[in-house]
């Protein structure tokens, strides 16, 4: 079952490169080690991340930009808690600084992917906040990337008829 989802009205997403590379595999290994050494703590921090992800989706579906921003900030905090528990600097000083800059203008930012310093996703409430955020990032030597948004994403298409056998690459190929 699918449902179309619209991005909340007026909410602006920006991607920030901090200038510091990070290896995802290093962070995943430390989180996996946490699961092995303290399964209860691992479950607790992962449950917190899950709750914030659900809160984010609910806010997007409700078209509540302020709640999307709040859940993004809380998700970033939960990622920091995971990092502390795992002994991994998931929200390092550069990512914490990007989050601070976003909060200063009424937005929020969190690490993208496994964290560690390279890329952050910032959500901003309006164009004025976006302009201020971009200026603040520039002052800190962080690059706000120009990335296109709004691709159609997953959708249900009308049923496609089978490819005629003469057009198939092999006898077993069928669509």
What features would you highlight for this structure?
alpha+beta; globular; four-stranded antiparallel β-sheet; 175 residues; 48% helix
Task: Outline the structure in words.
This protein has 175 residues and is of the alpha+beta class. It is built from five helices and four strands; from the N terminus they run βααααββαβ. It has a four-stranded antiparallel sheet with strand order 2-3-1-4. β2 and β3 (119-124) form a beta hairpin. The radius of gyration is 20 Å and the shape is globular. The two termini are 20 Å apart. The relative contact order is 0.19. The model has no long low-confidence stretch (mean pLDDT 89).
Helices and strands, with pairings:
Blueprint: E1 12-17, H1 24-37, H2 39-61, H3 65-86, H4 93-104, E2 108-111, E3 119-124, H5 127-139, E4 143-145
Antiparallel strand pairs: 1-3, 1-4, 2-3
Helix pairs in contact: 1-2, 1-3, 2-3, 4-5
Query: How does the major sheet shape up?
Result: 4 strands, antiparallel
Q: Decide which structural class fits the backbone.
A: alpha+beta
What gross morphology would you assign? globular
What is the helix fraction of residues, given as a range?
A: 40-55%
Report the sheet-strand fraction.
5-15%
The total strand number stands at 4
Mean pLDDT across the residues is 89
Widest sheet: strand ordering: 2-3-1-4
Question: How many DSSP helices?
Answer: 5
Beginning-to-end CA distance, first to last residue: 20 Å
Radius of gyration: 20 Å
Q: Element order, helices and strands? A: EHHHHEEHE
Uncertain ranges = none
Summarize the structure.
The protein is an alpha+beta fold and 175 residues long.
